[in-house]
Design a protein that fits this description.
The chain has about 270 residues and is an alpha+beta fold. The protein has 2 domains: about 220 residues, Alpha-Beta Plaits, CATH 3.30.70; about 40 residues. Helices cover about 30% and strands about 20% of the residues. The protein contains 7 helices and 12 strands. A hairpin with an 8-residue loop joins strand 4 and strand 5. The termini are far apart.
Amino acid sequence: MPKGMFVDTTICIGCKACQVACKQWNVLPGEPADFRTDPAEKIPVAVNFTGDSYDNTADLTGTNWRRVRFIEQFPENRVGGRWLISSDSCKHCNDAGCLNACPTGALVRTDLGNVALRQDVCIGCKYCLPSCPFGVVAFSHQTGTARKCTLCDERIHNGLGTACAKACPTGSIAYGEVADLKKKADARLSKLKSLGHEKANIYGYKEAGGLNVFYLFDDRPSVYGQPEKPDVPQGRLVVSSAVTVAGAIAVGVAAIVAFRERGQSGNEGEEVEK
């Protein structure tokens, strides 16, 4: 049975314990652009905050495999608004564009359903980067390879849960078998609907062939920075190839017809001259 994670954003408090746990377990350094040294205190100070938000990660990168997004929904008078918070990472899609694009087999799907990235096989070609509709895969200039969340591959294959789920204090991130997590997600969605959360929805049941890491949102996916209809580039290849082949056949047929007509016209001219 495939393993995955269910992220209930409605109970995320934005503590970033998951983000810290991810960095600690995977030994990921901080982004140099995220910090500067305070001349007085002589300590690193975070400077990459995005707007008025507490989101200092800004994006998923080669050293940031998990990002806690802070979405502020406040009117101009700052009264009556709300915060939406979501912990974002690789979705481990069933139809994984990155895996399909990899020419060396560095990206592999394991027996537990997660998409792992073998650093010793990656050649840094970057084909996987534009193939991910979620912008998850990033290139690390420090290693010269692609990097992304592996769903804590070595942990889950040794009977442990993911580091982020282990660190989450509210249960917002739950790790387990996908089938069981979906039951939990459906029950939670029904509960929220009964409480008047009309916009609540599950994101990941159908997107990209189904996501092994799926989410419960309290608004449209785009509000949380996710594509409403993620497009896996390879999904267009069959259609485009068919169109290309059909076009080539049509051109070829037209050329043959034109050649034959020209040949017939030439033969008729020769007969007239005789």
